[in-house]
Task: inverse folding
């Protein structure tokens, strides 16, 4: 998520923090009930004049989101120890699909992503490693023992 802080830097010379709020999306929710589901997930201290205009937050160990859920994310800046606030940014909606990954020791992340982009994006999609040369041997006969009559490979 990008949030321009140049205006904020000019107006406020003291410490401020970015407050990130998140809300899970549910098809059954209407706008009235959605407003009560926002939850602050992170306060990020801002360092004046040391931003490239991008704020990064969270990683796998933060455990902020659940797989297979859609979320809305918004943020605002808080000044003077939470006495003054900016308005919330426009909310951004994103999905957290259950990750599928090849169990490869030689594919890079980029190659893995490229291969996965060709597969159908369905919740029922499942990948199974049938053959690995380093595990099963590099002979053609080993490959055919493992892979013949197993469906599309």
Result:
């Amino acid at each position: 998520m990008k949030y321009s802080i140049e205006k904020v830097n000019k107006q406020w010379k003291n410490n401020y923090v970015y407050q990130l709020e998140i809300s899970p999306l549910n098809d059954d929710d209407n706008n009235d009930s959605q407003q009560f589901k926002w939850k602050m997930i992170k306060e990020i201290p801002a360092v004046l004049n040391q931003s490239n205009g991008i704020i990064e937050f969270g990683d796998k160990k933060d455990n902020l989101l659940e797989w297979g859920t859609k979320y809305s994310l918004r943020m605002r800046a808080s000044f003077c120890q939470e006495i003054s606030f900016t308005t919330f940014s426009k909310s951004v909606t994103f999905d957290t699909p259950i990750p599928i990954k090849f169990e490869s020791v030689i594919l890079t992340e980029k190659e893995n992503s490229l291969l996965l982009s060709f597969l159908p994006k369905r919740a029922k999609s499942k990948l199974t490693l049938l053959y690995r040369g380093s595990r099963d041997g590099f002979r053609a006969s080993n490959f055919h023992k493992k892979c013949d009559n197993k469906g599309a490979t």
In short: The mean pLDDT is 73.
